[in-house]
Amino acid sequence: RDATPDIHFDFLSTFRNSYHIRFGKYTLTVIRDPFNIAYVGALYHAYPGPWQIFMQDDQDGSYRVIDVQDKRPSIIAVKRRLMR
User: Fold this and answer.
1) End-to-end Cα distance, the chain
2) Do 50 and 43 contact (CB within 8 A), yes or no?
3) By CB neighbour count within 10 A (0-12 exposed, 13-18 middle, 19+ buried), where does 77 fall?
4) How confident is the model at residue 1, as a pLDDT?
5) Mind giving me the DSSP string for the chain?
6) Sheet containing strand 51-56, strands side by side
7) What does the pLDDT read at residue 55?
8) Euclidean distance between CA atoms 84 and 72, whole angstroms
9) How do the pLDDT tens digits run along the chain, 84 residues long?
10) Residue among 40, 74, 33 at smallest CA distance from 57
């Protein structure tokens, strides 16, 4: 008997991510000079710890934690947090 998509989803949704990292390069467009502001960040999670948002330093390229959350933030929430 073949498994339906619902059975696949129900089974896979029982798993938890033990490790997650997502890097991103983003650009914010503004109406004043310099017009485009580039920023780099990362979303990191190691189970059972919290979700962490990192921002890359322009000077030396290192990453620093700018936010910590218990629940996984959406990518839009990560971008908004990086823009502050």
Assistant:
1) 53
2) no
3) middle
4) 61
5) -PPPHHHHHHHHTT---SEEEEEEEEEEE-SSTT-EEEEEEEEEEETTS-EEEEEE-TTT--EEEEEEESSPPPHHHHHHHHH-
6) 19-29, 36-46, 51-56, 63-69
7) 93
8) 19
9) 678 888 888 888 888 778 889 998 988 888 888 888 888 999 999 999 999 999 999 899 899 999 999 999 998 899 889 887
10) 40
Q: Is the dihedral of CA 82, 74, 21, 52 positive or negative?
A: positive
Count Cα neighbours of 10 within 13 Å in the Cβ-side half-sphere.
Answer: 5
